[in-house]
Every structure is written in structure tokens, then in C-alpha cells.
Amino acid sequence: MTQAQLKMADLYDRLAGIGFPKKFVRQRILPDWWTEETDQDPNVVLEGAMYMADRLNVSIRSLLDPSTRVVFSPLYQPKFKLKNGVELERLMLPCALSGRVAELVAYSCNHPYLGLEGWTIDRIRTQIMASRDSVDLVGFVDFCWTVGIPVVHFSAFPSRVHKFDGMVSYFGDRPVILLSSNHKSPARLLFIAAHELGHLIKGHVAIDEPLIDERVELVTDDDDETEANQVAQELLLGRSGMSYDIWERFLTGEQLAKKSRQWAKRDRVDPAVVALNVTWNRAQRACSKDKNIIWGVGTKALKSLEPNANAPKLINHYLLAHLDWDKLRDDNTDYLMTMLGLDSIG
């Protein structure tokens, strides 16, 4: 089969071979005016391929060449921070999709990037707490947008795709923090976001080399990850190495929430961050059979402290006001709206 003989059905099959099923491509990648009837028109195959290649970050040459496997565009070489046993190839698909979303956000951001030179962790914390009781997710995201660092949540991947917690990357001279963890808890996403900011502050992120954190973990033998964790701890808790713990054997969620509120008020720390810190510390020391119990208590405490939480929606709501939507073509506006689950900007 030659390139000229390719049909839309062939393109769907080729993309399915690397992890993008037809249903995903139709619902999220092709424009909303595309129909089953459009699929049958041989004159739109190239147009469809262009949409697919652009939005999936794949090489259009490989997509249109039936003699080769479809490959991702070699725009940059990500730096992956992986758990043991996780293969790089499993993260190329979510990385490619996330990179395209982050690139569009960076391009349309209506704030200049002011840089982080001179911004010590203490200064950032002071800036946020000038208008907040503690460094919480709202204050953190507000700060990032103020200095021109977009924060976005994206996890609209095909089913069964291996996901990651977060990434930070430069697009041009602007960094973007992208979170992909689907936790609804603002405290959980706040720590990941602060960790990614830590990579920026410590100079771990190079131009054209996105840094992908497959999982953000407190205990690691990676020096960069340790430094990023230290930044997050100092920013959220007031000092590096600070930790909370409760030595009672098993608390209920409400008991943990109550203790967390007390410590949070005393130290000007987000109470949900305190509860999460306690849970992490206790689970780290516990034997395997007790870890689930500890995390169950912690989850109940977070639900008490963060009722009706939807951190991904909270984060992406900022994009409605902070992007210059007129800079985007209508089809790219629709694409971001669909991929990020945004309401209409009209």
C-alpha cells in the first residue's frame, strides 16, 4: 500500500498500534465537526493526518508511511525520573500528549515569565501568605501564574496508559508545570506541584529536556528528587526536614483531622498538608499489612478537611482567565477545552 492509497481507517489502525485507539482519536483528537461520513472522504485523509500528528506529537512522515512504525516527534529528549521496573517506552505516549497540551498553554499565556532569580523559598512562602493563611493550592497556583509559570492539570489519556505524577518543562523560555495525578485532594496535588517547582528552583530542568516524575516519593536515592522534596517541604511546612507525627497506634479520620487543624493553626500550615504529612510518615515506618489501614485513616481525614474537593478542576479553572485565547486558532481552543475539561470561555 502506498501513501496515496491510505484511508482514514488505516490511520486509525496505525495509531492504535502505538496506544491510541480509534475511539480516543475520534472523541479527543479530531475536531468536533469530524463525522463517520467524513472518514469516508478520501480527500480529507491528509487533513486528518495533520490533526493527528499535531495533537498527538507524532511524526506525520511516519504516520503516512505504511512501511514504518508510527513514532513520536523528536522535538526533545525527556529526562524521566522512574520507579524501579518502569520502562521509558511506557511513558512516551503520555509525555507526547502532555507536551503538546503544555506547549499550547505556554504559547497562549498572557503573563510574561519573570524568572525565579532572587526568589528564595522563604520569600515565595511570605508572598503567598500575605493573602493566605497558609501555603495552600490556591495560593501556590496564584503565585506561579503571577511570575508567568502556568500550572495545568492534564490526564485525558487513552485507557490503560501508564500515567505519571507530574512534569516540568520549558517551552521557549517559559516553564510550565503539568500535573497528571488524578487525586482530587488539593494537598496531594500541591505537594507534587511544589516538588516540580523545586526542580525549577534547583536548576534541574534544561531547555528542550522536560523532566517527568513518574511518581513523587518522599524516600529516594536520587539527589535531584531529594532536593525537590526539600524545597516542597520547606515551602509548605516552613522549614526543610519538618514533619508531623502522632504516636497513637490507630486514629480515626476525624481524630487525625482534628489534630491536624490544631497544628495547622499553630504553625500556619494547611491542615490537609499536615494530615498528609502524618500519613506519609506513619506509612513509611509501618509494616506492609498496616500501610493500607494508615492510608485509609489519612484519606478519611483529607475528606473531612477538604470536603467536595476537586483539585484538577480548581487548577484548570485558572486557565480561563490567564490564557490569551485569541492567540489560538479556533480548533486549538476547542482542543484545549476538550482535553482539559474546561467550560466555555464565551
In short:
The chain is of the alpha/beta class and 346 residues long.
Could you explain the architecture of this structure?
- By secondary structure, the chain is α/β, with parallel strands linked by helices.
- The protein has three domains: 62 residues; 193 residues, no CATH class; 65 residues, no CATH class.
- Helix content is 52%, strand content 6%.
- A five-stranded mixed β-sheet has the order 1-5-3-4-2, sandwiched between helices.
- The longest helix is centred in the N-terminal third of the chain and has 20 residues.
- 41% of the residues are buried.
- The model has no long low-confidence stretch (mean pLDDT 90).
List the helices and strands and how they pair.
Elements: H1 8-16, H2 22-29, H3 36-39, H4 45-56, H5 60-64, E1 79-81, H6 89-108, H7 121-129, H8 137-146, E2 151-153, E3 166-171, E4 174-179, H9 186-201, E5 211-213, H10 223-237, H11 253-267, H12 271-285, H13 288-305, H14 311-322, H15 330-340
Parallel strand pairs: 1-5, 2-4
Antiparallel strand pairs: 3-4, 3-5
Helix pairs in contact: 7-8, 7-10, 8-14, 9-10, 11-12, 11-13, 12-13
With strands numbered from the N-terminus, the spatial order across the biggest sheet is 1-5-3-4-2
Q: Name the helicity range.
A: 40-55%
Give the SSE order as H and E letters.
HHHHHEHHHEEEHEHHHHHH
Number of helices: 15
Low-confidence stretches: none
Work out the number of β strands: 5
Number of self-contained structural domains: 3
Structural class: alpha/beta
What integer value in Å does the Rg equal? 22 Å
| Spatial gap, N to C terminus | 45 Å
Strand content: 5-15%
Gross morphology: globular
Taking all residues together, what is the mean pLDDT? 90
Biggest β-sheet strands, sense, barrel? 5 strands, mixed
